[in-house]
Write a sequence for this structure.
């Protein structure tokens, strides 16, 4: 819930975490590894486009219930109308025609060589339209390809291409039938919060190429950030909250339940989203390390904490107070970006309070941190450790977190933010990124509070203001004061 830049040195305040424009390496834009072109996998399961979902008997009903009131069990009937009226994903392709997109593509181009516009660049299309439509050979009909890309991120960008399940999914009444649809036709089970978060992370974090589905590499690396693209900084619970839902949480797995929102759903989204984001980040890191042998920049600077380099030269700063930021480091050993892995929260490094996060998991994360934060990270070792931790996180997400009730998830989040590690003073010295992560956890708990507590709203707003990155700032937050933020966290606890 902080700020992100719309272009180089232009930062717009939005309720998300920081999106920082970073300076690039000299000549690095010329060595950006191209996104891998997938085989003609899309041809086997082509998209039908938004028009295929928009019939009144399908998802084209009026969307009043999802736009102006709490969703009910029939809100899915207006999903297309909802998407057209209020979903920011409709603008995803349109922004590729903006002047800022043209500047970014030009900055990334090899000097003296022609470059395609953003509307034809696979690196841009991979996240600004249905990813399966990004490769040049996605469809043989170029006119249809252009028209489908112009939909931006529509139904199939999240749910999967529908040609193989369009006429059968209306009969999927149970979770088992939906899982069969996943196996047989490529449907993505978004009723599962963890799968939904992982699907979002494909673009909002990044993901390796998926040749089976025909999706190219999605990687917002340091070169692209230096060219002017905002740094990706994903907070699943917050992003999801800003989409008026065209679904009823839990309805597909519990069809008999009423339309009342379950207390704890926001906390569960934050908890599961944190693990899914870390899983996606580890998979991308493993892929980045593996692509080093093909000429991709390594070490990838966007894996490091931006503020380790981008900061004012002052005698005292929050970076010096934050544990692990400089302590015990040698010059050139950059702290890992704390927004991705399961670190930076009270107790995260010595027993994160999540089912399945045990001593072995702590050791796996420590080994990966050691590999990433080395002065000259070994790509082979980093690749191995990142895949190992990603697999562990996947197991935790699919076997332990998936079974949690909303109430159990809420209790875990409260334990994370109010447990002994917090009380012992770890929040007193939190870095700005880490404090932002904790803030989102507190915000999720406040959104779940029934009835609301109006007296707590000013504290949450004051905390947000204390963490806000000022406009037109490319250095670390100049006004961040750990002691002030600590006091606000104490008032919330």
């Amino acid at each position: 819930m902080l700020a992100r830049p719309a272009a180089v040195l232009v930062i717009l305040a939005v309720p998300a975490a920081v999106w920082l424009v970073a300076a690039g390496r000299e000549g690095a834009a010329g060595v950006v590894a191209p996104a891998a072109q997938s085989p003609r996998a899309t041809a086997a399961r082509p998209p039908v486009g938004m028009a295929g979902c928009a019939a009144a008997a399908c998802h084209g009903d009026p969307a009043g219930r999802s736009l102006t009131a709490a969703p009910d069990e029939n809100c899915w009937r207006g999903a297309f109308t909802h998407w057209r009226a209020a979903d920011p994903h409709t603008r995803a392709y349109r922004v590729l025609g903006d002047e800022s997109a043209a500047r970014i593509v030009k900055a990334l181009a090899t000097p003296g060589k022609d470059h395609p516009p953003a509307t034809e660049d696979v690196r841009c299309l991979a996240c600004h339209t249905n990813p399966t439509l990004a490769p040049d050979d996605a469809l043989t009909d170029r006119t249809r390809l252009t028209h489908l890309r112009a939909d931006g991120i529509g139904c199939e960008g999240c749910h999967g291409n529908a040609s193989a399940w369009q006429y059968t999914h209306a009969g999927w009444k149970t979770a088992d039938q939906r899982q069969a649809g996943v196996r047989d036709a490529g449907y993505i089970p978004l009723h599962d919060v963890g799968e939904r978060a992982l699907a979002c992370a494909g673009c909002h974090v990044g993901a390796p190429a998926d040749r089976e589905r025909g999706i190219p590499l999605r990687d917002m690396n340091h070169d692209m950030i230096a060219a002017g693209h905002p740094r990706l900084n994903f907070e699943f619970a917050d992003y999801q909250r800003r989409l008026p839902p065209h679904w009823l949480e839990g309805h597909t797995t519990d069809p008999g339940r009423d339309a009342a929102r379950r207390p704890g759903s926001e906390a569960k989204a934050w908890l599961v989203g944190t693990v899914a984001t870390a899983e996606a980040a580890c998979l991308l890191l493993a892929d980045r390390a593996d692509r080093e042998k093909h000429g991709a920049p390594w070490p990838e600077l966007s894996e490091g904490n931006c503020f380790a380099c981008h900061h004012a030269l002052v005698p005292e700063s929050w970076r010096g107070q934050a544990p692990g930021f400089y302590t015990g480091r040698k010059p050139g050993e950059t702290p890992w970006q704390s927004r991705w892995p399961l670190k930076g929260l009270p107790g995260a490094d010595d027993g994160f309070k999540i089912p399945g996060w045990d001593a072995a998991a702590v050791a796996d994360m420590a080994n990966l941190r050691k590999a990433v934060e080395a002065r000259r990270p070994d790509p082979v070792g980093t690749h191995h450790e990142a895949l190992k931790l990603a697999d562990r996180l996947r197991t935790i997400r699919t076997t332990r977190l998936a079974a949690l009730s909303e109430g159990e998830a809420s209790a875990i989040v409260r334990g994370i933010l109010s447990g002994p590690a917090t009380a012992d003073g770890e929040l007193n010295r939190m870095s700005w990124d880490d404090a932002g992560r904790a803030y989102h956890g507190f915000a999720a708990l406040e959104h779940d509070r029934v009835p609301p507590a109006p007296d707590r709203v000013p504290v949450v707003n004051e905390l947000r203001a204390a963490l806000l990155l000022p406009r037109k700032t490319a250095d670390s937050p100049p006004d961040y004061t750990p002691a002030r933020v600590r006091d606000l966290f104490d008032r919330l606890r």
About this structure: The two ends are 19 Å apart (CA to CA). Strands lie at 3-7, 10-13.
